[in-house]
Amino acid sequence: MEKYEVRDPFYRVDGLVSPGYESVADRFAESFALGRENNAQCCAHVAGRRVVDLWGTSQEARDQNYDGDSLQVTSTILLFPHLFLKKASFSQLVFSCTKAVTSVAFASLVDRGLVSYDDSVCSVWPEFAKEEVKEPKNGEVQHHKRKCDLILSDVLRHESGLATFENKLSSPKCMWTENVKKNKVGEVIERERCR
Fold first, then answer.
1. Are 68 and 173 contacting, i.e. CB atoms less than 8 angstroms apart?
2. What is the pLDDT of residue 179?
3. Number of domains present in the structure of the chain
4. How far is Cα 150 from Cα 128, in angstroms, rounded to an integer?
C-alpha cells in the first residue's frame, strides 16, 4: 500500500491505498472538496486484503474542537467516534450497524412477553411525549403524527416521523457516555414533535 494524502485549506485526507485503487481515494477526497463530508473514514478489503484505508476531516470540523476520543450515540443508535486524524487504526463512521442486533434483541423481548410491537412508546418511555400537547386547540388542524400515538413498531420501522430533529444538542459532549447515561440525548428526543 502507498501513502495517500491531500492537504487543502478546507480539508485534509490521509491514508493508504493499494495500486489500482487510487480512484477510490480520489472520490473519497472529492467528497470533502465538494463539502459533502466533514469527517469520514473508508476502509475496504478485497479477497481478505486491505486495499484502501483512508480518513479525512474538514477544517470546519477541526475548528469545533472535538477532543478526538468522544463516542457519539444518537437516537437512531448511530455510533461513531470523532477521531480527526489522530488514530488511523480506529473506525469512524458506522451507520446502521446495530439494526440487526436491535431487531433480534427486541424480538427476544417480544418472545418473552415483556413487550409487544403494538405497545405505545410512552408505555416504556413515559417522558417520550411529555411536552406534546395532547389535543389540538380549537380550530387547529393537526398535520403530523402525535408522539403519544406512536407504537414501538413505528420506531423500529423508522416510521415515527422523527428522522431529523429541530432541537439540537447544546454540545457534542452531550453524546459522551456519562451524558448519555444522564439522558441528555433522550431529553432532546422528548422535546421533538413528529413530522
1. no
2. 83
3. 2
4. 10
